[in-house]
Amino acid sequence: MSFGKNKLYNPEPKKKPLLKKALISTGLVTILATGIVFAEESSNVRTVQHVYVNGEHIGLVSDASVVEEVIQSKLAKADKSYEDADLAIAENVKLVPELVFNPTYNNTTISNYLESNLTVKAKAVELKIGNDVVGYFDSKEAAEKVIEDYKLKYVDAETLAKVEAAKSTNKESDVPQNAEAPSKSADLAVGESTILDVTLSKDVSFSDKKVDPNTILTVADGLKLLEKGTLKEEKHTVKEGEVLGSIASKYNLSLASLLKLNPSIKEDTLIQIGQELNVTELKPFVDVIVKKEEKKEETIAFETEIKESKELLKGDEKVTQEGSDGEKVVHYTVEIRNGKVSDRKVLDEKTIKEPVNKVVVKGTKVIPSRGTGTFKWPTSGGYISSHVGYRWGAYHKGLDIAGPSNRTITAADNGTVVFAGYQGSYGNKIEINHNNGMKTVYAHLASINVSVGQTVQQGQQIGIMGSTGNSTGIHLHFEVYKNGALQNPLSYLK
User: Fold this and answer.
1) Is it the case that residue 7 has pLDDT exceeding 60?
2) Cα angle at 439 between 404 and 413, to 5 degrees?
3) Is-contact 302 270, C-beta < 8 A?
4) Which of 46, 185, 269, 479 is deepest in the core (most CB within 10 A)?
5) φ, ψ for residue 467 (rounded to 5)?
6) Distance between CA atoms of 383 and 365, rounded to whole angstroms?
7) Phi-psi region of 174 (alpha: psi -120 to 50; beta: other; left: phi over 0)
């Protein structure tokens, strides 16, 4: 008996040929029929076992127990290390009995061969999601528990049980599996939601395998794998301000790993905006898709309606009607993937309170910056307490007006404010250029309502009468200039 490639070869006996099973059966019948005639001949016939491993003939043994002892011995040794595993010989070992005249066999050689070449594996169930193998488990129940626990990350156990029970009922009632879940709108109150279905984004399959016992996963380990996901190669487009280090960090890669994925670049390579780099990113094995319906009360935001008015100055506006929000009840179907809303559709909505628009009136009236040439009295009535001319040994440049019905100061004519602030003996002072050679000055003001560069209209409020600066009391000091020369205001006031 000698070894060929991966098998033991047992040459046929030279004196007596092997008999096929059909011939042996016929011979037995013949032996039974002829009695003593073949008694001496039949004493040399023995039942032997042809040994096949994975379909390949290995040799002959005298009895099946020779092979069984080797197998049981290997399983017993492995069982000491893997007590909880369901162990089996990985190879397909087959014994074929045959009656042979004067058989030749070598039990020891076959036993040694089997001892060296047979491997012990664990019976396992492979969990496959889509085209990805997640891992191997000691039972289908364990693999199914991994899937169930993964779903329970996104929905509670009671809800999942109800959904699965409803599916079973539909299946028994021959409802198509891809049929839309029935709407629960009639049962939903405002503020409530209901789960319609919990599914996975990819097909899940289970198959029996024989694997290395060390690769068997617990349910907890399998769940961690699902949660972690699997590495997928992606493309990253370089954005402004990014460098190799920041890109590697974004995808939890070392710089060396990023460079290995991109052989054309080196650590000191200057990457360009818009350049694509190979990266790897953890992607979920599968998405848990939760479909639900919900009814929510939502606000209908009021709109702002703009109206124009020629009565208001351009730049001025006023609210003629305050806005108020409305309310509505919206019935949604919502799809949630791995805890994040991926789709939301409105099934129905009902307005329970209409919104009221806010109405804003904006002025369109443009104030001419050029004066009319005629000045309007700058106070609300009052009297002249001092004229232009010499007074107390000094020249008094303006007209003092006191005792008005209210202290509002208005622009004497259209124009542009060229000064608005505090100035020495004038106190709070406003100067208006009427853009026609005329200029007016308003002094001793308690407060100022305009700013430099502002265009004002004749009669527009510009400040409040006061007694700031070098003043004898509450009054307005009013000056008029024409082409830079001081004028008597009474010559222009109407």
Assistant:
1) no
2) 55
3) no
4) 479
5) -145, 45
6) 33
7) left
Which one-letter amino acid corresponds to residue 156?
Answer: D
Q: Average pLDDT, whole number, for the chain? A: 86
**C-alpha closest to that of 471 among 446, 450, 438, 439:** 446
DSSP class of 470: S
Q: In what order do the strands lie in the sheet with 93-101?
A: 56-61, 45-53, 93-101
Assign 434 to helix, strand or coil.
Answer: coil
End-to-end CA distance of the chain: 141
**Which range among 128-137, 180-189, 417-426 shows the weakest confidence by mean pLDDT?**
180-189
Task: Set out the domains of the chain in order of their start, with CATH numbers.
Answer: 2-118 (no CATH), 230-283 (3.10.350.10), 383-491 (2.70.70.10)
**Rounded Cα gap, residues 63 and 71, in angstroms:** 14
**CA dist 321 to 124, 140, 327, 355, Å?**
75, 69, 19, 12
Dump pLDDT digits (tens) for 25-57: 222 222 223 333 334 445 688 999 999 999 999
pLDDT tens sequence across 325-346: 999 999 999 999 999 999 999 9
Tell me the three-class secondary structure of 342-365, residue by residue: EEEEEEEEEEEECCECEEEEEEEE
Please answer whether residues 334 and 343 qualify as being in contact, where contact means their C-beta atoms are separated by less than 8 angstroms: yes
pLDDT digits (tens, 9 = 90+) for 450-490: 999 999 999 999 999 999 999 989 999 999 999 999 999 99
Three-state DSSP at 174 gives: coil
Residue 14 banded pLDDT, cuts 50, 70, 90: very low
| Residue 117 tokens, joined | 């070449």
Write down the residue that tokens 């003939």 correspond to.
57
With 0.90 as the threshold, say if the pTM is over it: no
At 401, the amino acid letter reads: I
